[in-house]
Amino acid sequence: MTDTRAKRGRPRAFDRAEALTAATRLFWERGYEATSIGELTEAMGIRPGSLYAAFGDKKSLFKEAVHCYGRSPVGAFMGVALEEEPTARAAFTRILREAAVIYPDPAHPAGCLTISAATNVTLQDAEVEAFLRNLRNGNLGVFEARLRVAQQAGELSDAANPRALAAYFAAVIQGMSQRARDGATAAELTETAELALVAWPAARH
Question: pTM for this structure?
Answer without folding.
Answer: 0.88
